[in-house]
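User: Here's a structure from my thesis project, written as structure tokens. My advisor, Dr. K., wants to see whether a designed sequence matches the one we expressed. Can you design one independently, without my sequence as a hint?
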């Protein structure tokens, strides 16, 4: 058994976490179990995003941060959650922690465990083991998708609209021109705006793919082509009255015109949105639906 560094990360590191151990040692409320499911669905979630994404904590009033921190600490010490901070920028304080399922949380939910926060164990001079944690290389993308969800929830709450669906990585398998194709959008979103349904596929772009390109972005073009083939295959007709709009929420403003031009060229309804303008885009959209 090892121990993490003293303080915020301190806990006894149980080397063998089994379902029997979890059932004996982990007694969680329904709200805490809801948190585990939310985190599993999103892989990795920042604490302040959890406050909004979890409806139970969002409606908990002024004490929601205290209640959530208490739940995270409880589940962390019981090996059901893992946590980490982003690297601290010079002159700035820590950002809210990010949490992911630990082995106990996966066992409680009955899902395969995948470690999202990597561990490196080092031995101190005193003989104790210390765990050093690091984030996955795709955490910026995961964090961007979660931030987009938070902004969607806040937008809907502010105008009394309803977020009906927010589906992560829905696998769509279809055939087009004799070819079997798999499409996995980052998000399928459904909004109810004044009784009218709005559907969209959302792709979040950090600007890291094809970052050396200044005017042509093959990864984006190939995604649009795949959505176009899905639309022409009529695979989604049985589920939806129309093919969902394609939204690219990007951190790289120079990709927006390229995306919009390619969507128009290929005859698919799509819009590129700079990530900081996403809520403004939703407000404008709500006036024309």
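Assistant: Designed independently from the structure alone:
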């Amino acid at each position: 058994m090892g121990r993490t560094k003293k303080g915020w990360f301190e806990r006894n590191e149980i080397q063998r976490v089994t379902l029997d151990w979890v059932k004996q040692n982990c007694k969680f409320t329904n709200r805490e179990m809801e948190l585990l499911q939310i985190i599993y669905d999103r892989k990795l979630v920042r604490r302040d995003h959890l406050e909004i994404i979890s409806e139970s904590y969002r409606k908990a009033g002024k004490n929601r941060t205290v209640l959530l921190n208490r739940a995270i600490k409880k589940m962390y010490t019981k090996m059901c959650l893992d946590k980490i901070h982003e690297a601290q920028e010079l002159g700035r304080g820590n950002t809210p922690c990010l949490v992911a399922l630990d082995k106990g949380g996966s066992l409680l939910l009955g899902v395969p465990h995948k470690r999202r926060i990597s561990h490196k164990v080092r031995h101190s001079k005193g003989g104790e083991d210390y765990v050093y944690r690091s984030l996955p290389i795709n955490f910026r993308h995961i964090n961007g998708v979660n931030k987009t969800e938070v902004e969607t929830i806040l937008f809907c709450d502010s105008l009394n609209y309803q977020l009906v669906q927010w589906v992560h990585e829905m696998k769509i398998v279809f055939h087009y021109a004799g070819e079997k194709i798999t499409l996995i959008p980052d998000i399928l979103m459904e909004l109810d705006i004044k009784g009218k349904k709005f559907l969209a596929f959302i792709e979040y772009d950090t600007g890291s793919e094809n970052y050396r390109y200044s005017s042509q972005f093959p990864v984006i073009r190939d995604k649009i082509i795949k959505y176009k083939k899905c639309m022409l295959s009529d695979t989604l007709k049985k589920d939806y009255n129309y093919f969902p709009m394609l939204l690219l929420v990007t951190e790289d403003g120079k990709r927006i015109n390229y995306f919009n031009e390619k969507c128009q060229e290929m005859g698919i309804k799509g819009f590129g949105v700079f990530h900081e303008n996403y809520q403004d885009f939703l407000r404008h959209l709500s006036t024309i639906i």
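When you compare it with your expressed construct, this may help: Residues 1-5 have pLDDT under 50 and may be disordered.
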